[in-house]
Amino acid sequence: MGMHIGQGVNLPASTWVDESNCYAISIGDWCGFGEQCLILAHDAQMDEFLDAGLVAKVTIHQSCHFGSRSVILPGVEVGPRTIVGANSVVAKSLPPETVCAGVPAKVICSLHEYLARHEADLAIGRQFLWSEYNIDVLTPAHTAQIMQALAKGPVYVTGGFSAELQGRGGTRRTPYNETAEANGIEYLRQRRAEK
Questions:
Q1: I want to staple 97 with a disulfide (CB 3.0 to 4.6 A). Which of 7, 52, 111, 158 is the partner?
Q2: CA torsion angle for 75, 89, 40, 80 (degrees, to 10)?
Q3: Which pTM value belongs to this model?
Q4: Shortest CA distance to 83 belongs to which of 95, 75, 91?
Q5: Where are the beta strands (DSSP E) in 133-179?
Q6: For 73-129, how does the pLDDT look when each residue is reduced to its tens digit (9 = 90+)?
Q7: Domains and CATH numbers, the chain
């Protein structure tokens, strides 16, 4: 029996998954992992002393995203729609709809607060359409435009995830179908309805 990997999951080849205990790992739909993440379901550090190693479940709910080189330790549950910053160590369970980072990973803010900050930044400018600025179609002129904008600060490339859902390139993901509606899109709809 293998691990559960949901639909639409971005799991780069550099992600290391605890193969010998993969049956204890569950990854929900639409999760994303940066390069070189580690997902561990066992801890054998005490094996020499106790002749025993710990195995514990790892449950990652839908629409969670992990920055590069994050480490997920055994016995944790990561709530739906949680973002974990790069180089974090998830040593304890994390609540849903939060942004977490650190060693060990701790809540920094709610997902709502995080998205509100980025929505405010999006409203004031510097956006580039993914369809015109992704690496597959990037021209020297577009590179110069985006570099000029980057000299003034961060920019946003918009529309990439929507393009993925329409089958127009983007991130490599596990197969998905109409039953796996992206949870983040539903969250966004709810947020917009509240306004």
A1: 111
A2: 60
A3: 0.88
A4: 95
A5: 156-158
A6: 999 999 999 999 999 999 999 999 999 999 999 999 999 999 999 988 888 878 999
A7: 4-110 (2.160.10.10), 113-194 (no CATH)
